[in-house]
Structure formats: C-alpha cells, structure tokens
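Cross-posting from the chemistry board since nobody answered there.

I work mostly on the small-molecule side, so proteins are not my area. We synthesized flavin-adenine dinucleotide and want a rough idea of how it might sit in this target. Sequence and SMILES are below. Is it possible to get a predicted 3D structure of the two together?
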Amino acid sequence: MLEYDVIVIGAGVSGACTARELSRFKLKTAVLEKAPDLCAGASKGNSATVHSGHDAAYGTKKALYNVLGNKMYDRLCQELCVPFQRNGTYVFAVTDHDMDELARLKENADRNQVPGVRLLSYPELIRQSPGWSPKVKGALFAPTGGVVCPYSLVFALCANAAENGVDFYRNTEVCGIRKEGGRFFIHTGCGDFSSKYIFNCAGVYADDMNNFVSSRKIRIIPRKGSHIILDKKLAPYVDATLCQPPSVLPGGGHTKGMGLMPTDGGTVLLGCEAVDIGDKTDVSTTRQGLDEILSYFETSWRFLPQSRYFPEFPKNLIIGAFSSVRPHPDTDDFILGEAPDAPGFINIAGFESPGITAAPAVAKDLVRDSAERFGWEPNPGFNPIRKTEKPFREMTEEEMEEAIRQDPDYGKIVCRCEQVTRAEVLRAIRDPLGARTVNEVKMRTRAGMGRCQGGFCSPEIVSILAQELRIPMNQVTLCGAGSEILGKESCLEESQEEKEGSGA
Ligand SMILES: Cc1cc2nc3c(=O)[nH]c(=O)nc-3n(C[C@H](O)[C@H](O)[C@H](O)COP(=O)(O)OP(=O)(O)OC[C@H]3O[C@@H](n4cnc5c(N)ncnc54)[C@H](O)[C@@H]3O)c2cc1C
C-alpha cells in the first residue's frame, strides 16, 4: 500500500493544473493516470482555444472560471515555456437573427466582465480585419481569445509538478475507492494506494469516481466532437479564431459554434459538432461527423476572409481528423468542490468546455481553499519555472550550428515536415515522464504532425523507441498495448539484441 497525503485521479488539464498547485504545499502527492501516457482524454483532442468567456452563460461556474482562467494564461505559459498567443476571436453574423445573437453575446460578455469585447459593423470589421465578404453583417470581436497547445501545456504542468516533488503513476486505473478511519483507500489495477485527500479529475469517468464515495450521485454524458486538420499552407491567412454564433448550427447551442481555429503548430482546425453518445471510449471519427463539418464549411467558406486567397473551400489541404469526448454533466455546469458527504474528496467534474481555459483558475481556487481549511504548509522549495530546450525548428542558424556542435544528434532530422531532430526524439523518450509510444513522441515533439502525417518519420521513430526501450521493434506501439505497428510476422521482428549483435 502506497501512502500519500493527496491523490489526484487523472492527468488531463484539470489533474495537471491541480498537481502543480498542490506542489506549492508541503504534501506527499501522487497523480494516478489509467492510460499509458499523460493527457489521454479530452485535453489532447480539442479546439485548443483559450476562450475569452463571451459566451459562457452569466452566473455559471463555467463563466466565472473561464474569465479567471483566461487571465492566468500569459503568466502560466511564460513560467512553463509553453507557446500561447492571444489572437482574438471573431463571431460573425450573416443574418439579422445572427446580429441579434451577437447583441445577446455582447451583453453576456459585459456581464461576465470579459475585457475589450466589441460589436463591429461590417465597415468596422473590414477596417480591422480585411477580406470578409460583403454578405457579412458584422461581428463580435473578443481580443482576449487565444490559442494554446493543450497537450504541451499538460506535459509542461506535469513536468513542473514532478520537478516540485509530485509522483506520477501511469497505467494505473482507479477501480474502486472506500473511506475508512479518515483515509481513502484506492484500489487500482497495479496495487493499492491510500490518501487523506482526493482530487477527482477523471474526465468522462469523474462520475464513477464520485459515486464510489458519495451518495450524491453525479452523471456525466459523453458528448463527442470532431475536428478536421488543414495543412500549414493556410496558416498565413488565419490569424484569429473565426466562428458563427452557436444557434445557427445544426443541433445549435451544444457547441460554441463551428469554427476555424489556428493552432500553435501552424496547422488550422475546423470543428466541431457535438453529439451525445453512449460509449465513453468512442473517439472514432465518423463519416457523419466529418460530413457535418465539411458541409458547413463548403457553404460558409465564401463569407470568410480566407476565400480571397482560396475561392473554394480547400479540401485538398485536409491532412487529418480526430474526435474526442466532452465530459458533459447533466447539470450543465462544472461540478466543483468537496462532495458534501465525503469530506476530503474534491471534484473537478463535468469539466467540459471551457475546461482548458478554466483549469488553471479552478485548480488554484480549489487547492487554495483546501490549504486554508486543512492547514497545509507552503513548500518553500516550489519553483514555478520549468526549464526547456528551444525546439530545433525555432533556432536561429547560429543556434542550430551550436546545438549540432554540442550534440551531433541535432544534425539528424527525423521528421522533415516539422523539422524534428533525433536529439529531440531521444530527449522526449529519456525525460523522467518520457514517451513510450509513437504517439507519445509525436505529442512531445510534433514529429508526425506535419503534411505527411508520419509517413516518413514513423519507421525511424519506431526504431529509436525500440533501441531506447530495449524492446524488439514489433513491440513498439502507436498508443499502448494492442496498437503494435509491425505485425508479428514482420521481417523487422528481429530483436534489438540481435540487431546490435549483427552490427546493423
Ligand atoms: C471536441 C472538444 C473541443 C473542445 N474545445 C475546447 C476549447 O477550445 N477550449 C476549452 O477551453 N475547452 C475545450 N474543450 C473542453 C476541454 O477539452 C475539457 O474541458 C478538458 O480537456 C477536460 O480536462 P480534464 O482533465 O478534466 O479531463 P481529461 O482531459 O479527459 O482527463 C481525464 C484523465 O483522467 C484519466 N482517467 C479517467 N478515469 C480514470 C481512472 N479510473 N483512473 C485513473 N485515471 C483515469 C483519463 O485517462 C484522462 O487522462 C473541448 C473538448 C472537446 C471534446
């Protein structure tokens, strides 16, 4: 039995923010994550938008923490060395009904105290952002909207929490919790843990965790959303997040609006629809979901400024698609704080959009409140700054030469699309919370995220993983057991020992 003061269940954005906040205190803390890697749930597959808070309904926890969380992003990303850009959000109107919606959103934004939101007439819009179709009637502009790489953020939060003393256990699924004598006993597939406090950050499974210990049952409905990824060729023409008011969409009101979003990596996302599903594990992309996005953009493309450069919706720039599942609570608002009949069990549940945006503020408030109540002492050694290496693709020529001089593996490009070097792949694997699969390398380095979607670099990454993990190549997986890339019969089956022995 491993004993801790605090256990955090789940290493998505809410668990990662919570773990880092907890590391500000003198506590023995562990994060239990059921997946082989960190950031395995909704936090890895979303629109990556740091929402301004203009549309979260006034008076809700979502609205409060959206605005508070948004304000924390500049400092947080600076401390953790994570790219973050305040590129602003335009919600545009093409009908009088849409204009009424924009007026309603503006009123809501003002009540939520979102800074700087403006309603722009068409002439004002094109003065600020040229190229919109004359069919557009106006737009709501929210300058504090931004873009972050959500999985880079989660990895950075976890790395910083680990540097400050938090333990991480991957492949560790919580299967049961009971409370006895003032402590929680947590049963996992890999042994048992006990702790005085639990933070429940288990995404779509947060209801199961709560319902183990509380008679106040909660219910999470999985709500799927998909995105289409467009090639970087479009990126120079997309400098802000663009969307229509949610109410004009099929099934409107379930999403924040179908949108076109730049990403920090230079690709562009289109999405996303919202469909309630029965299976929490179903992150498959469907023809129907992708068709919904495509047919929306095929119709509305002509309104957007990008249609000046690409008159037709550029289907040929589609390089990929993904789906993810929102943890939608049947109460329609975040479920935050201590379960009323389970002291010490703290929920961050029903944490759907704007969860990426809100997580830093939610974690800060809940941990601070707990510290006050339970008398936790500050950790004098806490260091908020995470040291990182600059990615090779962002180095100047002099910096590249120096990096190669110090480590020749910087001179070997593994992923041509994203300019990722062998040195960076090795670092991603050797890191204390390092990559063990091809997807994990991809999420830490961007190798495989470019135009060819891993067509060129995957074999090399499989080979590096096999060498570093000292396993045969046919045991290297895409994303954990059951996703082995090379068949058992493959001629590449020879073990690493054999390969080394043969001098290959
Ligand atoms: C399509 C889509 C678009 C979105 N767009 C945005 C956006 O643009 N901006 C925004 O702010 N928000 C957005 N969101 C919402 C945001 O992604 C979520 O609010 C946020 O990621 C939830 O984070 P989390 O850490 O609570 O949950 P998750 O990221 O799901 O993490 C939960 C973790 O818990 C682990 N876990 C589950 N059960 C167990 C168990 N029994 N034992 C151990 N570990 C367990 C999981 O493996 C997972 O890693 C979007 C969501 C979706 C699906």
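Reply from a structural biologist on the board:
Welcome over. Reading the output above for you: The longest helix spans residues 61-80. Confidence is low (pLDDT under 50) at residues 490-504. Happy to explain the token format if needed.
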